[in-house]
């Protein structure tokens, strides 16, 4: 039975991907909670639409920030030399 061992670079890359997914999920859950609260407030239609649009814009901004962090972490991973890699 053979066992495949992931390299440290692979592990770092997978951790980066998981962190990115968690960040995006956290932002989306926050927005959904805010939108749920907005819907329960009984606001006028236009006021409600404006508030929801504002929350969705925040999600777009947060996702852009999360993607930028993901990219920067990826660059650091790519630039780093890992001890389990051949010279």
Q: What general outline do the C-alpha atoms trace?
A: elongated
- The helix-strand sequence is HH
The biggest beta sheet reads: none
SS content category = mainly alpha
Low-confidence stretches: none
Number of strands: 0
- Mean residue pLDDT: 91
Total of DSSP H or I helical runs spanning 4+ residues: 2
Structural descriptors:
87 residues, mainly alpha, 2 helices
Q: Could you give a short description of this structure?
A:
The chain starts with 7 loop residues before the first helix and ends in an 8-residue tail after the last helix. Helix 1 runs antiparallel to helix 2 (45-79). The longest helix has 35 residues, at 45-79.
Set out the fold topology.
Elements (H helix, E strand, L loop, with lengths): L7 H33 L4 H35 L8
Q: What can you tell me about this protein's structure?
A:
The protein is mainly alpha-helical and 87 residues long. It has one domain. 78% of the residues lie in helices and 0% in strands. The protein is built from two helices and no strands. The longest helix is centred in the last third of the chain and has 35 residues. The mean pLDDT is 91.
